[in-house]
Design a protein that fits this description.
- The chain has about 325 residues and is an alpha+beta fold.
- The protein contains 10 helices and 9 strands.
């Protein structure tokens, strides 16, 4: 990654030059700011349980501490300290949900100075005490730190070389899915516009049989009148007892076979191209060569795009 030039970025509101900039200069300068904020996010993710100072974030961003703080607040509407606190609290909630552990151990592991301070912060964030949550982990809205680059994906050039897509048959057991329906959405961005993006944090707080929430395209038989094909949800075992948050539904899904299409790892800013490559492979693939045909009675499943593992979609199939 090239070093950011800190002397050639006019910022009129910050006392810089007020000269007229052409469109390419504006785009380049905006992207340099996005890169700087992304580096701060990456630093926080890599050092979340350490003492993170504004000087540390400035070192990652390659700007002054004051300007780094200003950029961060401008993009996220919260200070780096608030961002770090919320992320630590959400990580602690997941740990309390999944592992037996002492509240004091969690508090100090997550970087809080005292148990009382951690308990107060947890109560403010989630509306319950950590000890009560550990005993009965009800669904809560976890903080999901989306990478800043996702907001500016259209400014990145397309990936030049097509990647490999790996395909394998997997079995999905009979299960229930707790879902949040949209209105007319057929894709993620329309869905977020209809229901908001915060639902993903809520779903992450519910323990899943596959370890994470999913998005689904529902067949007509699973849709309610006036609701969307595209939904987000979490798959749980048929006998799991879970408090269903207000506004969410539960559907039962049978055991089914899927073809899992998985692309190669990708840079986070290239996730759009990674999705298109996998979908192009799905479109041209003929499942009859391995003795299957597409199963239109089960939902197609989309996993969260994670660059380190590659983009994944699961398409239901049945024997010919």
């Amino acid at each position: 990654m090239p070093e950011v030039n800190k002397t050639k970025m006019p910022q009129p509101e910050d006392g810089g030059s007020s000269g007229i900039l052409d469109r390419n200069s504006v785009n380049r300068q905006l992207w340099e700011q996005v890169e700087a904020v992304q580096r701060m996010q990456d630093y926080i993710a890599d050092h979340l349980y350490e003492n993170i100072t504004l000087a540390d974030l400035a070192g990652a961003s390659l700007y002054s501490p004051w300007y780094s703080h200003r950029l961060f607040v401008r993009q996220f509407g919260q200070t780096p300290a608030d961002y770090i606190r919320r992320l630590r609290l959400s990580r602690s909630a997941q740990k309390l949900r999944d592992h037996p552990c002492k509240i004091a151990d969690i508090a100090f592991e997550m970087g809080f100075g005292s148990v009382d301070g951690y308990q107060r912060a947890f109560l403010r964030e989630f509306g319950c005490n950590p000890s009560d949550y550990a005993a009965n982990p009800v669904p809560v809205y976890l903080f999901v730190p989306y990478g800043i680059k996702f907001r500016f994906i259209e400014r990145r050039p397309a990936m030049e070389n097509l990647k490999n897509v790996f395909i394998q048959v997997i079995d999905r057991p009979a299960r229930k899915a707790i879902i949040k329906r949209g209105v007319k959405a057929t894709e993620y961005f329309d869905y977020c516009a209809e229901v908001g993006c915060d639902v993903w944090g809520l779903l992450q707080s519910i323990k899943s049989i596959v370890g994470e929430p999913v998005s689904m395209w529902l067949p007509a038989s699973y849709q309610k009148p006036g609701t969307s094909e595209y939904v987000q949800g979490v798959e749980i075992a048929p006998d799991d007892v879970v408090i269903i948050p207000e506004g969410l539904d539960v559907i039962s899904l049978p055991a089914a076979k899927y073809l899992m299409f998985q692309g190669e790892p990708f840079a986070e800013e290239d996730y759009g191209q990674a999705i298109e490559e996998v979908r192009a492979s799905i479109k041209k693939y003929d499942p009859t060569v391995i003795g299957f045909t597409w199963d239109n009675n089960n939902p197609r499943i989309q996993m969260e795009p994670v660059g380190t593992r590659g983009y994944i979609e699961l398409v239901p199939v049945k024997p010919v």
